[in-house]
Design goal:
Blueprint lengths: L8 E4 L2 E5 L5 E5 L10 E6 L13 E5 L6 E6 L3 E6 L17 E4 L5 E3 L2 H4 L11 E5 L2 E3 L7 E8 L5 E11 L5 E3 L4 E3 L8 E2 L10 E3 L6 E5 L5 E2 L2 E10 L5 E10 L6 H5 L1 E4 L6 E6 L7 E5 L4 E2 L4 E3 L2 E5 L6 E7 L3 E7 L1
Parallel strand pairs: 8-13, 15-21
Antiparallel strand pairs: 1-2, 2-3, 3-4, 5-6, 6-7, 9-11, 10-12, 12-13, 14-17, 16-19, 18-20, 20-21, 22-23, 23-27, 24-25, 24-28, 26-27, 28-29
């Protein structure tokens, strides 16, 4: 008993942690609280050893709730202390390990790491302090699906341990990412009133990725569908192994040849589809400039040999897909590279 002022107090297990200003932190054993006179001081830390007078110097608050057993002490005069109860070696009682199932969600990289606290279902120790670990604790896309058995280990400050097992279910909630080509305009096939929709997926215009894998990538309307003049929304859907989906789309406008009709109708590309050398011919005007673009609108650096008869170029080094040849900055022709 001291003349110091008792202040904030907290209960952890059978211990009462008391801020007692000039008397420091006092720890009271309350295991026999129901019996009068049975509570005794079991430990203390005096951060203000000068005196135990009745005033407001010394410890004004403590925090004893860390599972590590560390205790924070805040002293008005001397600052911050972190302490831990000394272990006499007489504690041979193991903690009580209580497990709980857990659902682990993969991150956008397809990985997840869990801690013991994730599967701790209310473990305890007679000291009021314990730490946890779990094994295995690292999971990835290969673990999605059936539950995985893990072991929780509970340890107290005296080195006693106990274990239990539970199940972790790994799930993937991240949808795929997907990007589409820009808006596109094309013309009906020569001598026809309809346009055949190409396979934009195999042409490389649609890019999809996922933290685990992309199971399917679909296009609607599908490749090969024939459409008349008008504007159509081309939609793509990517699906991953867990059934998460994402989509994108772009408008495809099919229209008759407009500006430069006369010049455009005299242009021909052969062969098309092509694998190596391509011949671009014009029967209705000179070819002064040629540019090549990918389906995503990226300019392709390619050498063109232009003469009065037309132009020649080699596409052997290009990836398979759909490209657009722009002639004289006014007319575009579709080229398929295989």
């Amino acid at each position: 008993t001291t003349a110091a002022v008792d202040h904030n107090g907290y209960v952890v297990g059978n211990k009462y942690y008391l801020s007692s200003y000039t008397a420091g932190m006092r720890v009271i054993d309350i295991s026999g609280i129901a019996t009068p006179g049975s509570m005794n001081e079991s430990g203390y830390f005096d951060s203000y050893p000068s005196n135990n007078n009745t005033n407001f110097n010394g410890v004004w608050n403590v925090y004893p709730f860390f599972s590590s057993g560390n205790i924070n002490i805040n002293d008005i005069n001397n600052g911050f202390f972190m302490v831990r109860a000394s272990v006499s070696g007489t504690d041979t009682t193991p903690p009580v390990a209580v497990c709980a199932p857990y659902t682990a969600v993969l991150d956008t990289a397809g990985n997840v790491t869990i801690t013991g606290s994730n599967v701790d279902g209310g473990s305890s120790d007679n000291s009021g302090f314990y730490s946890t670990s779990v094994s295995p604790n690292i999971f990835n896309c290969a673990d999605v699906g059936g539950p995985i058995t893990v072991t929780l280990t509970v340890s107290d400050v005296a080195g006693n341990t106990s274990t239990c097992t539970t199940e972790v279910t790994v799930v993937d909630n991240s949808p795929p990412t997907i990007s589409c080509p820009p808006d596109m305009t094309d013309n009906p096939e020569a001598g026809s009133t309809f346009f055949t929709i190409p396979n934009f997926i195999t042409a490389g215009g649609v890019v999809a990725a996922d933290n685990c894998d992309v199971v399917s990538l679909t296009q609607s309307p599908p490749a090969g569908a024939q459409v008349v003049l008008g504007t159509y929304n081309i939609v793509f859907v990517a699906t991953d192994p867990s059934g998460n989906t994402n989509s994108c789309g772009f408008p495809l406008t099919v229209e008759e040849l407009g500006l430069n009709d006369y010049f455009a109708q005299g242009l021909s590309i052969s062969p098309n589809p092509a694998r190596d050398f391509v011949r671009l011919s014009s029967a209705r005007g000179a070819i002064d400039q040629i540019q090549l673009f990918s389906i995503t609108g990226k300019a392709i650096d390619l050498h063109f040999s232009i003469s009065e008869e037309g132009a020649d170029f080699n596409v052997a080094g290009l990836q398979s897909g759909i490209y657009f040849v722009t002639i004289n900055n006014s007319v575009s022709k579709k080229l398929i590279v295989r």
